[in-house]
Design a protein that fits this description.
Length: about 600
């Protein structure tokens, strides 16, 4: 129990350390929508708000494609990291960029065709709104390429331990977006075209700031189209497709709900929903950031078949992320009236009242959404395609569209808001029902709820999990490792060397890593007997200590330096070190 608690605390520290950066990254698109909404309502008019709302499903469709690329690439890279296959990560990076460019070109062509053939007639019967929508779409075309590519690079920057670069790009985008909106809309009065043009040019700046380490050669990843394994492009799309399907369902939901609002409420309903959504998008970045920091750990855990870390990520979601989102939702509900006044000033107008209710009801969806997003991600990484499609369809379109259609005649615009909350509750029931059906009993623990296969990972008898906090622990654990090896039938020599290797390398982590800062650290050790090999895996969240780097920089003529590390490289058949988002993982095979 102490070992499980220590591992859970390490995972929790790592997730919360990465969370602020990932929230900022997730907020990039939200800031664009929020700024556009504020300038549209205050400088252009209600027609512009309706145009933004009508475009939203098309934005979701673009999101579906860049989610597919980013999700598939991150999960595939996570698996390769778990196996330390770094050349394949290089291939994934290059293929990702190429696919991003091709998909961007396809969207640009489709949007031009929509303008050419007047497709806005199918979205609304309001001629004024159609005209504004066409101008808004024209400006959006300019930002398609940087939007798709810009949403790929944060994951690769994280793999390079350059997450701050993505944060810098996000902050620069926010500033540029506000300034360009003030110039194009507030000063030049370019109306709807100025709204979308400001966001598009802002995304080009965002992309340039993100891409700079790859352009100037300071990143380890390089664009290399020679000797690419094109089968991996299919693997990226295959793995990422379930995530894209989720966004695709949301696109369909948006089209259906927009049509229902137009028929039963009118353009005023679209304007109200757009206003509330434009502010709430900023706060939806919090669940998005939570999922981003969980996704890579989930994929690496699956790649390593690390059952404990996998379940710890999900436990952290329930015990830490959900309470945080409940607090955020409560604050949003209390601020409903002030937020509404950012867009509309007359409390007696229908659009004001509809917008207030959106702020009071929609935040209730956020904690529920965190659960759904994490289970979809886990199912996606674990290749549980049926569960991915089940949850994506239920959450993406079925429940929201159905409840809205049933309630809109009686409740008007409030039906849309209430339908979203009911959707979250129904999805939880789907997750629970799936676990009950698969396990044939009510879930007893997190592993039951996640329906983790019994064959996943090595059995408890084939592994030894330990946590080190002090140098005294190192000696004791070294002895326990030797005993574990002997009990598993390992010869005395290799059992002794296994304990010695662990003592040397874990001791280095504690000696060099624990003293570098004032934070509390632990070393998570796993010993696995697999086949004829003893595999030692040492995981910590300290300052990076790479034995290979020490080995390379040591003076070969000075035999007194790095004696322990030299010894490990002589007795081990393989030594691998990797740093994953600030988490050091050292694997020694003896």
């Amino acid at each position: 129990m102490n070992q499980q608690q220590a591992n859970k605390q390490m995972v929790s520290r790592l997730l919360f350390r990465l969370l602020p950066v990932q929230i900022c990254l997730a907020a990039v698109g939200a800031v664009n929508g929020t700024v556009s909404g504020l300038f549209a309502s205050n400088f252009v008019g209600m027609e512009a708000m309706s145009a933004i709302g009508l475009y939203a499903p098309f934005g979701m469709l673009i999101g579906a494609f860049y989610t597919m690329l980013a999700g598939g690439s991150v999960i595939l890279c996570g698996k390769y990291l778990g196996r330390n296959e770094r050349l394949k990560i290089q291939h994934v990076f290059s293929l990702n960029l190429l696919l991003s460019a091709l998909i961007s070109a396809l969207f640009i062509l489709v949007f031009f065709l929509l303008l050419l053939f007047g497709a806005a007639r199918t979205l609304t019967e309001d001629a004024a709104v159609r005209t504004v929508f066409n101008r808004y779409l024209l400006g959006q075309i300019i930002g398609v390429f940087p939007t798709i590519l810009g949403n790929q690079l944060p994951a690769f920057l994280s793999l390079e331990n350059k997450g701050k670069r993505a944060l810098q790009a996000s902050l620069v985008f926010i500033g540029v977006n506000i300034l360009l909106n003030a110039f194009f809309v507030g000063l030049l009065r370019m109306d709807a075209f100025g709204l979308s043009l400001a966001g598009s040019l802002g995304m080009w700046v965002f992309l340039l700031v993100e891409a700079w380490p790859f352009i100037n050669g300071k990143a380890g990843l390089r664009v290399a189209f020679q000797a690419l394994d094109w089968k991996e492009s299919g693997e990226i799309l295959k793995i990422g497709f379930p995530g894209a399907v989720g966004s695709g369902y949301q696109t369909l939901r948006g089209l259906i709900v927009n049509r229902l609002i137009t028929l039963f409420v009118g353009s005023v309903g679209i304007s109200a929903f757009t206003a509330s959504d434009s502010i709430l998008r900023l706060f939806w970045a919090i669940p998005g950031g939570m999922l981003a920091v969980s996704r890579l750990l989930i994929s690496v855990s699956v790649g390593e078949e690390d059952r404990q870390t996998l379940t710890d990520v999900m436990r952290n979601m329930f015990t830490r992320f959900i309470p945080l989102m409940c607090a955020v939702s409560a604050v949003l509900i209390l601020l409903a009236d002030p937020f509404t006044r950012l867009f509309y000033r007359d409390p007696a107008s229908p659009v004001f009242q509809m917008t207030v209710m959106g702020f009071r009801i929609l935040p209730l969806c956020m904690p529920l959404s965190v659960i759904c997003m994490h289970f979809v991600c886990y199912a996606q990484v674990s290749n549980k395609q049926f569960l991915v499609h089940l949850l994506s369809a239920a959450d993406g379109v079925v429940f929201v569209a159905s409840f809205t259609a049933l309630l809109i005649r009686a409740l008007g615009m409030n039906s849309v808001y209430i339908a979203n909350v009911l959707n979250g509750l129904m999805v939880l029931l789907v997750i629970l029902a799936y676990a009950i059906i698969k396990k044939r009993r009510f879930p007893r623990n997190m592993e039951d709820l996640m329906v983790i296969p019994e064959v996943f990972g090595v059995s408890e008898t084939e592994r030894l999990d330990l946590t080190l906090k002090t140098m005294d622990d190192v000696i004791e654990v070294s002895q326990r490792v030797q005993m574990f090896c002997l009990e598993r039938g390992i010869d005395e020599r290799r059992a002794y060397l296994s304990g010695l290797a662990l003592e040397e390398m874990a001791g280095n982590v504690i000696a060099h890593g624990f003293s570098k800062d004032k934070k509390k650290h632990t070393v998570d050790v796993r010993v696995v007997h697999k086949g004829n090999d003893v595999i030692l895996r040492i995981k910590d969240d300290c300052v990076t200590f790479d034995p290979a780097e020490r080995q390379r920089t040591a003076d070969p003529n000075d035999i007194s330096k790095n004696v322990g590390i030299r010894m490990i490289y002589k007795i081990a058949t393989e030594v691998q070190h990797q740093n994953l988002l600030g988490l050091n993982v050292l694997t020694i095979r003896i």
